[in-house]
Design brief:
Radius of gyration: 12 Å
Helix content: 10-25%
Strand content: 35-45%
Number of helices: 2
Distance between the termini: 23 Å
Largest sheet: 4 strands, antiparallel
Number of strands: 7
């Protein structure tokens, strides 16, 4: 099982800076998902920035979400 997200910071170009409970800091690129179904709404920059951590994953107000597993596996490490 992968670690849960502890905090999320939305960045430019549809990137999420993620802090995981194990101390890892990673960058997740949301842009490949923006033309798919419910994720199209994330193209609105102000809406994209409304992301928050819910139960160790990330979620937006209309319940678009990414699991901690997806985020951990498909993100790239950053130095602290």
């Amino acid at each position: 099982m992968n670690p849960y997200v502890k905090s999320v910071e939305p960045l430019e170009n549809y990137q999420l800076k993620l802090h995981f409970e194990n101390g890892d800091l990673k960058l997740f690129d949301v842009s490949p998902y923006l033309d798919k179904g419910v994720f199209k709404e994330l193209k609105d920059n102000s809406y994209f920035k409304s992301v928050r951590v819910v139960s160790g994953a990330v979620q937006w107000p209309h319940e678009q979400d990414f699991s901690n597993d997806t985020l951990y596996i498909r993100s790239t490490p950053l130095s602290a």
